[in-house]
Write a structure and sequence with these properties.
2 copies of one chain form a homodimer.
Chain A lengths: L4 E6 L3 H17 L2 E7 L3 H13 L6 E3 L2 H4 L7 E4 L6 H10 L3 E4 L7 H14 L3 E3 L7 H11 L6 E9 L3 H5 L1 H4 L2 H8 L7 H10 L8 E8 L4 H10 L15 E8 L4 E7 L11 E4 L2 E4 L4 E4 L3 H5 L9 H6 L3 H4 L10 H15 L7 H19 L5 E2 L25 H8 L2
Parallel strand pairs in A: 1-2, 1-4, 2-3, 4-5, 5-6, 7-10
Antiparallel strand pairs in A: 7-11, 8-9, 8-14, 9-10, 11-12, 12-13
């Protein structure tokens, strides 16, 4: 696309505002890009974001409270969805049907059917929905991917990761902040936020690109901490002190892949701890553990035998294997630069009119973990089948991707083996 | 018991020799204890151990190659079993039926039925079989238990642990060493060694003492590393290079407890890494992570906000909460002192003729994890039920235990609530 890309942002809570201010508007100065519409169900949010946009020297975008109107804004080419979790897929499907280049923020699905509808909409309209999984572009995650592609880790047999983030404050202030987490933690019990850890692991394991996830089992601990914290901070007789939270404090989810790898995901958002995505990669030749920042390679005595090189030895390795796209990249957003990279990849896919690097099949695959986790927990940890949303394309893809990072064209040689 | 306790050691491979030399014989100098019989199916092992015993200034014990003879040695009171995993329960049952005080080294069970037979034998004979789970007595594990009993961690909702130990060398040299691991890794795929991490967690969560484990799901990754290592070290055409190993490189097992806690166990013995038992305890007020040696308590700003206190901050806390039994204890065995403590607890239970602190119900409960893990993996991660080997005694125990450590009498007040 040579002409100006006109873009709308739908959802201007904390995340939408951060993306607009720190990434999308700055990108408008570098790319042929213009924010022409802003939409939020709360009128004040859209108005305030429009004002901010104007103050930063851009034309004032039109504002909407109804996304169905916003996606029909004259001349619109693309939309970025950063609304509440519950509305992501609904808005994305409407935008794709409208012919817009569509990207949505992360979050899990509420039913398998929604994931299928997302896929059907892509297949009917030819418009992908990119999942804006910024952690796929994390410096640490890409350094390990880089190391793996260079053969240093051998064959990967196991990965783990988590969303480990004490969010009690944000959850319990949900009413004041008009935030969706509170109602989710009251009403549901599942792996509600799997993609930050699963995205980078899926790229490492070539999910939908020569491999796929086949089964899921999920387990929730008792739910104790939110109640205890609500009673402590607001009193036992306060409305929050009386709430019964369904969400277990720790949710453990185990995935198995067609190529034999296991993946363990941990949702850990209501107990006190440091922040971590717990990124763990176990190959036959080497291992990386984000927790403890430990790295080892078999038979490299330097790493193997120097005890000082155990916990905490990884920083130099992350630096040594820094991915090319991080080398000249200056962090400039609320997540150390990842947001910039993922939004840039979306813009690049629009300009070249090719499938985005985290496409509709990936979105459906990553998001369905939440819906399936709810099923498995409800059924006492039962094994549930993870659908092949690609219906065989995972081993025979041939659509071109924007691929400076994830080796997405890698599936072709594999596919050749099986085509006749 | 006031008279000399005459003891036999059955199984004199690496483990039996280590216990004999570093713990049992030194204890003979402190306690009214005498090693009168030694037994191993390999005659040279028993003979060599008897010679060593004599060299250290003790009477030469009788030697046997058949445990059925050894347990009938005249005047014998007690037996310590340190044979191959496959024979632990068979030998223990024979010893209990012989009226001996019985203790056995750790290892998993091969069928649920064996665990039941162990329990039936105790109930018929009145003789317990103590599981010698030394890690229940680990300095770190007991410091955390101590901290928890003092209320610092709040309610525990989740624990994790692992046997994380690169054993490729030991496994692949199994033939030369006459070691049982090799045949297990060739023929089975399961959580084959759960008790080092599960023991301390079970004590923390009052398993069989007010709580119990109710379900298990288990998952194995692909098996790649042993084959790759065998080919590398012995050649692709060597006997070991041609072996197909059944054991997955990483086995993840999830347990759920009656009181809502989740427990995640990891078997990680065939990939390069540092040694760890990955002991992780998550309470509503605090957390401990062995990996990364990180500790935090909610609302203690000293731990919460000083970034230097994240990874690696736990050493001072472990020291501060050192358990009384470690305070004047000088490490003197092959495992930093834990072996000494667990064997001493066994001797104490004999002298006072009370149930040992890790008793037959505990042994059955911990060991059944292996058999159930094999079931669950075979059934695609299916949820399997963990039997209540106590048949209700977990909430109404009233037999006296040796209890300087684990608060084993704690179940009584709870039981009172439900007795009428």
């Amino acid at each position: 696309m040579d002409k100006t890309i006109n873009i709308a942002v739908i959802g201007l809570g904390g995340r939408g505002r951060s993306l607009l201010k720190c990434v999308i508007l700055p990108l408008c100065k570098e790319e042929n890009l213009c924010v022409t519409a802003l939409c939020d169900i709360y009128e004040d949010r859209a108005a305030s974001a429009a004002k901010k946009t104007e103050e930063l020297g851009f034309s004032r975008p039109a504002t909407y409270t109804d996304y169905k109107e916003a996606i029909k804004h004259p001349g619109l080419d693309a939309v970025i969805i950063a609304s509440a979790w519950e509305s992501h897929i609904e808005i994305a499907i409407a935008a794709m049907k409208q012919g817009l280049y569509t990207a949505m923020e992360v979050g899990g699905a509420y039913s398998l059917e929604d994931c299928w509808q997302l896929v059907h909409t892509y297949e009917e309209t030819g418009r992908h929905c990119m999942l804006l999984e910024n952690c796929c572009y994390g410096n640490e995650e890409l350094a390990i991917l880089n190391m793996y592609r260079q053969g240093l880790l051998g064959d990967i047999v196991h990965c783990a990761g988590g969303y480990m983030h004490d969010l009690r404050g944000e959850i319990l202030n949900g009413k004041g902040d008009r935030h969706y987490r509170l109602r989710n933690y009251i009403n549901r019990n599942c792996e509600n936020y799997p993609t930050h850890e699963l995205g980078p692991i899926a790229k490492l394991l070539d999910i939908n690109n020569g491999n796929r996830i086949v089964t899921l089992n999920s387990f929730a601990s008792a739910s104790k901490s939110l109640h205890e914290t609500a009673v402590r901070d607001f009193g036992a007789n306060s409305p929050l002190g009386q709430v019964e939270f369904k969400q277990g404090d720790i949710v453990t989810t185990v995935l198995k892949c067609q190529k034999g790898q296991t993946i363990v995901l941990t949702l850990d958002t209501t107990l006190h701890r440091n922040y971590s995505r717990g990124f763990t990669v176990r190959g036959t030749k080497g291992a990386y553990f984000e927790d403890g920042r430990y790295f080892c390679i078999d038979d490299v005595s330097d790493y193997k035998f120097n005890p000082d090189k155990f916990w905490g030895n990884a920083d130099e390795v992350i630096e040594e294997f820094k991915h090319d796209i991080w080398k000249n990249h200056t962090a400039c957003d609320d997540h150390g630069g990842m947001d910039w990279l993922v939004i840039s990849a979306f813009i690049e896919s629009i300009k070249r009119d090719v499938r985005p690097p985290i496409d509709t099949y990936d979105a459906a695959t990553y998001m369905c973990i939440t819906a399936l986790s709810e099923q498995s927990i409800t059924l006492g940890g039962a094994t549930v089948f993870v659908p092949d949303f690609t219906r065989s394309k995972w081993y025979r893809r041939n659509d071109i991707a924007v691929d400076t990072v994830f080796n997405l064209d890698k599936a072709e040689p594999f596919a050749d083996l099986y085509q006749y």
